[in-house]
Amino acid sequence: MNEVVHQHQQSQPETQRSDSREPVALLPAVDIFEHADALMLIADMPGVTRDSLHLEVDNNVLSLEGEIQLSMPEGLTALHAEVSGQRFARRFTLSHEVESEAISARIDNGVLSVTLPKKDNHRVRRIEVKAA
Amino acid sequence: MFGDLKRFDTAPSQRLDWFRQLIDEVFPDGRAADIRAVPRGSFPMINVARSDEAVHVYVFAAGLAPDDLSIDIQDNVLTLRGRREPVAGNDEQSRARPVFRRERACGEFVRAIALPDGLDAERAEARHANGVFEVVLPKREELKARRIEVQVA
After folding, report:
1. Does domain B35-142 sit in CATH 3.30.300.20?
2. Residues of A (38-67) whose Cβ lies below 8 Å from B
3. Domain extents in chain A
4. For position B30, what pLDDT does the model report?
5. Are B63 and A44 inside 8 Å of each other by CB?
6. In B109-134, which positions are buried (b, 16+ CB within 10 angstroms) versus exposed (e)?
7. Does the model's pTM come out above 0.80?
8. Least CB-CB distance to A111: which of B3, B62, B101?
């Protein structure tokens, strides 16, 4: 599913596009941890489908955005809302060791998993201590 | 629709949750809180809406399969129970690896929410898609909205 990550090597002017269009964006809860060869990012985005998810790496910034897709009948009146928004959005700055061409992602039951592989020369190498 | 619901959301976004919670603790506003109210950011989050025929409960439980959530209703209290497994990477073997953020709730949870009276639990239905459970509880016949025709005198 590499095709969901769009590359923008050209640094574009910061337009605040996402902020001005829709002021209410929910911040998804994330786990981030490190493997020997990759950084892993797990984000809770319930209601977001593969089609409504937008992942982007622009100028070393990883953006996660997703529209919440709920099939709701017409004429509903809200009684109680803990999720008040239609969209999740969060951004992270990547370090230079991440191979941004090789980022892959999948979304399953509303949980987004992003694998950020490290460049070869940044992978962990164990240094053997030789006997004297 | 829930995006328009500002009266339940005094903070502009979840970004201010920790700040709101801090303020709530330091300066309680003196108003009585709902007995079943929870701080924002609890897992799973719940939205409730009503139509003329039914009450719809949306449970935002990312990562739960349909079998992972049990939904019980007694009188008008809906109880949600379940367990969310930690993601791979939290197991013993990788625990030695650095973790930078751990914001996602995992483990057992139980949440209860009071619904309006007069729902027909026998005809309740639940659906699941993309980590969101929708529970539809029809209103009892005698409580449904009814249009009263005005008859010509």
Report:
1. no
2. 40, 42, 44-49
3. 2-7+25-69+85-122
4. 63
5. yes
6. bebebebeeebeeeebeeebbbbbbb
7. no
8. B62
